[in-house]
Amino acid sequence: MNGERAWVTRPDLASRRVGGSVLWANDETFAERENLITPAPAGFRPATFGHKGQVYDGWETRRRREPGDDEVVVRLGLPGVISGVVVDTAFFTGNYPPECTVSALAAEGYPSPAELLAADWEVVVPRSPLGGDTRNPFDVVSPRRFTHVRLTIHPDGGVARLRVHGTPVADPALLDLGSLDLAALAHGGSVVACSNMFYSTPANLLAPGNAQVMGEGWETARRRDGANDWVVVALAAAGVLRLAELDTTHFKGNAPGWATLSGCDSTTADPDDPTAWFPLLERTRLQPDTVHRFPIAQRRQTTHVRMDIHPDGGMARLRLHGAMTDAGRDDFLRRFAEVSGN
Length: 342
Hints:
Helix content: under 10%
Oligomer: single chain
Structural class: mainly beta
Shape: globular
CATH superfamily of the largest domain: Galactose-binding domain-like
Radius of gyration: 22 Å
Mean pLDDT: 95
Largest sheet: 8 strands, antiparallel
Number of domains: 2
Strand content: 35-45%
Number of helices: 2
CATH class of the largest domain: Mainly Beta
CATH topology of the largest domain: Jelly Rolls
């Protein structure tokens, strides 16, 4: 993949890790469709044969002997605005599709595969050539919020992974805006800065569900300079925080010793100004492999939260529970309307 796109650092909206699902494929003769959204990179073991031939870690269809194309439909685990798509043909060399098209759809509720196939899809990646055994990136320029994507391969072959990078946009009708995790990726929270991400991305802190292994959290390198590591989170909307959850699950010999939380209201101050930040949680000792919950006494409107860990280490999840302010609620509803066409 020549010249990595900037958008690959954004969340993979289709990943199984965030609740994505492969709903339908017209064919999966050689390799199962579900492999497309596996979070881990594709692997390959040569000369590993099953009843249908070489076992591939991807989605592979039969060789077509009649006109037509093969398709697969994925429900995004995190509906949102798509910035780019990666069609990864890793290890598919003589059996990759020469071309592909990607379409997207915004659907309400929980439609069946038949209902989805009959819907009006928007092409977000026009028919484009693919290379074999490589990551094929495609920019997406549509400003709309989508819930599903459809990958069409022309005419057949194998794709290892489908990555759909973008910005999650939650449906306000499905949330209680007076009590929610304002940092959650699923609600629109995002990491905007951090000191170090040597072992894993800090975006993992905001991911849905519990971390299953250490690698699903955020871990920094060992510090030797006397300073400390930190991360800044932009909340889904301006709000007042009530409870913070600092989760060091799976981090046993490498959990931070202490942590602090600071807040900033970007509607009245510049987050780049060190004096704009106010304390939310004083320096507090942490334990390894533990879910810590702390009440937040500060009742000020907050748009950004900075977590400092001392001196370094790993954190599985960061949850910041609270309520949107009136201004935050209005802004949240406006942003949803802009990308949903409502």
